[in-house]
Design brief:
The structure is a homodimer. Chain A has 9 helices and 10 strands. With about 270 residues, the first copy, chain A, is of the alpha+beta class. Chains A and B meet through helix 3, helix 4, strand 7 and strand 10 of A and helix 3, helix 4, strand 7 and strand 10 of B. Chain A binds a DNA duplex (19 and 19 nucleotides) through helix 3. Chains A, B: It comes from Nonomuraea longicatena.
Chain lengths: ~270, ~270
DNA sequence: GAGTGGTCTAGACCACTGT
DNA sequence: CAGTGGTCTAGACCACTCC
């Protein structure tokens, strides 16, 4: 750390520690000096040192555990979600019989993931459409919807890869009682196959993407610091008749998710 | 604020103020009580009150100005980036003559925005490809690249909508000296038209999206708090011969940007 | 000059984790 | 138990803005 710097001391400390982490002197998983040690080391009060550590948390570089210490975060396994290909792939398989679908070896569902070792929990409820959902589906507010919530994770890690809230019109789904039974999840073939059993063919899927800091409960469930961002995906599925048949909100941890979209352009003559 | 709560006082204060903001009792733009006033009001030290305010900043709800006060942030105008349509639209116009392109009334370029009142600054430099860029373009490390940096904003607001770092192979671009002159920006017709003057036709565009907290300098330039997220878009443009001809990194403020991708599925027979 | 937020100190007690 | 981070206090001085 250089002398004579006009910036706040705690920022200088934060940057010094950041550089140590980025240079690999403080490898992922290693413990930092304790706050009291750091305050001696940098000749600062513990409050200022905590300020510096707060910065590092906001940058997503460290995490603290009460009673233990502060550790350098390991860059976690990043997961690619190739939406363009995935949606078509799911559609291609939606009409196949269950054996063929099973043979793909993939647990296919809403998240677009096809890792072989996925695990998830589901919860179904019936809710009434609020103004926002009513607008999306083009139905009156108060219309009954089937709300499906998913917590998806890989078996190897316990922190979920995604949180999903998915909505379907109850009156449409009711034609196949199996679809209203959360115990039937994971449905082999995914949502598009579920819709196929109702005679619905999807034609268009619209992804809308934003980023924001996680809500406290999301940070908790996804096992991320408040200083890490989440991707918010609003996915609208439209069938061949132009009806909105499904809407889902997917919350993804920004530090481990990469969403891929491929646009193929028409050739010039 | 209810009595008897096991959570930290500063969190309770933050939530109390958050609720006041969400209920509209503290409208956007209004000043909050000063830190000293708040510490009297809640019977807490100024440090704890500052802790609460830090929370509100992390949630993106308020901003402080030294010497003035702390103000409720106005929810900013959200900008939609409809990538799927945009890329094709840009390609359709790339071959038109300049008059026709001008007639569309849009300043078209890399960001995918077509607001009529866009303003931006550009900076061109020649750099050598690092390992990462070399891998993307499939060229040896050290190959000369034209690096173009853009700061885009609307004329009505002074905070930029996006930061763009775009890379092109210098040896390809050199065929048209106009393209290496930053004073020629904004190029009517955008990047696809620039490439057209070199005889290059794009066929595929790959968008890769992630979210993370902003770096300090990004937060500064985009005028967002460190507690607000940014969307990071890595866009790779591939021509009809499968060559990567452009790579760009776009930084977008997560609180005002929504990226839209439309996937059209093939019809069942 | 008065008031604001930004930084910083030198303490204190607590909850939690290890041994 | 000792050591850790989490919370909190009651001060202080500073840079900045507005009047």
């Amino acid at each position: 750390m250089t002398e004579r710097d006009w910036r706040p001391r705690y920022i200088q400390v934060a940057e010094d520690l950041r550089d140590q982490i980025l240079r690999g002197e403080l490898p992922p998983g290693s413990a930092m000096l304790s706050e009291t040690d750091l305050s001696e080391r940098y000749d600062l009060s513990r409050t200022s040192v905590r300020n510096a550590i707060k910065q590092l948390k906001d940058w997503g570089l460290v995490r603290s555990k009460q009673g233990q210490g502060t550790y350098v975060r390991a860059p976690r396994q990043r997961v690619e979600r190739r939406h363009t290909e995935r949606y078509q792939w799911e559609k291609d398989r939606a009409r196949l019989g269950e054996p063929e679908r099973g043979e793909t070896g993939a647990t296919e569902f809403d998240t677009g993931l096809d890792l072989p070792d996925l695990e998830f929990r589901a919860k179904y409820t019936i809710v009434e459409a609020d103004d926002n959902l009513a607008g999306i589906f083009g139905v009156p507010a108060g219309t009954a919807l089937l709300k499906r919530e998913y917590w998806t994770s890989t078996r190897s890690e316990d922190s979920p890869l995604s949180l999903v809230r998915s909505y379907l019109l109850r009156d449409i789904v009711a034609a196949n009682p199996d679809l209203m039974d959360e115990a039937k999840e994971p449905w082999p073939g995914g949502t598009q196959n579920q819709l196929y059993t109702l005679g619905i063919e999807l034609e268009t899927i619209v992804d809308r993407l934003t980023a924001r800091p996680p809500l406290p409960e999301e940070a908790d469930v996804l096992d991320i610091e408040v200083g890490v961002s989440v991707l918010v995906l609003h996915k609208t599925s439209i069938d061949t008749q132009g009806r909105v048949v499904e809407f889902s909100e997917v919350i993804l941890p920004g530090d481990r998710t990469e969403i891929v979209h491929v646009t193929t352009l028409e050739r010039w003559a």
